[in-house]
């Protein structure tokens, strides 16, 4: 059971705002440490149209943005492991077109055409109280 938290949303939006000097959405989070990015693909449909394969699927990517977690820890003076008022299941949502948070560059090999975010409900970002980020988007790819 997760709870969308408005207070958490305000804290995170403040931490990643362009006015905040510690967060840069153009830099890979946690640099120079390696970033582990998990990728899940859920295929919704697969069809052959005149010798081209068209696939609709959900692309979900998650990673730990320790930069956000570090900013929240320093600014609130709390340990990210025991942040009072927030549970690990608390999160806040962002518009998937929001450029204030770092997003991975996703590409597909041998794709003729790709459409990302086919609908606003199928394209979102969630960030939890400990810097865990989930990017979920519906994608349509046309393969050769």
Instruction: Report mean pLDDT, rounded to a whole number.
Output: 75
Q: Report strand %.
A: 35-45%
Bin the helical content: 10-25%
Order of helices and strands: EHEEHEEEE
Shape call: elongated
Characterise this structure.
- The protein is an alpha+beta fold.
- 15% of the residues lie in helices and 40% in strands.
- The chain contains 2 helices and 7 strands, in the order βαββαββββ.
- It is elongated and about 55 Å long.
- The chain starts with a strand and ends with a strand.
SSE diagram, text form:
Layout: E1 3-4, H1 6-16, E2 37-49, E3 52-64, H2 66-76, E4 90-95, E5 111-116, E6 123-128, E7 132-143
Parallel strand pairs: 1-4
Antiparallel strand pairs: 2-3, 3-7, 4-6, 5-7, 6-7
Question: What is shown here, in short?
Answer:
The protein is an alpha+beta fold and 144 residues long. It has helices spanning 6-16, 66-76; strands at 3-4, 37-49, 52-64, 90-95, 111-116, 123-128, 132-143.
Tag the structure with descriptive keywords.
seven-stranded mixed β-sheet, 2 helices, alpha+beta, single chain, 7 strands, 40% strand
């Amino acid at each position: 059971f997760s709870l969308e938290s408005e207070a958490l949303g305000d804290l995170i939006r403040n931490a990643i705002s362009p006015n905040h000097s510690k967060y840069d959405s153009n830099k890979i989070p946690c640099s120079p440490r390696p970033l582990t990015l998990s990728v899940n693909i859920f295929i919704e449909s697969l069809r052959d149209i005149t010798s081209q394969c068209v696939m609709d699927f959900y692309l979900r990517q998650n990673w730990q943005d320790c930069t956000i977690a570090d900013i929240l820890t320093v600014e609130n003076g709390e340990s990210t492991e025991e942040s009072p008022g927030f549970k690990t299941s608390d999160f806040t949502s962002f518009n998937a077109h929001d450029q204030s948070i770092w997003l991975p560059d996703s590409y597909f090999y041998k794709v003729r055409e790709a459409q990302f975010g086919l609908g606003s409900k199928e394209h979102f970002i969630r960030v939890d109280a400990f810097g865990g980020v989930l990017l979920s988007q519906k994608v349509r790819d046309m393969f050769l």
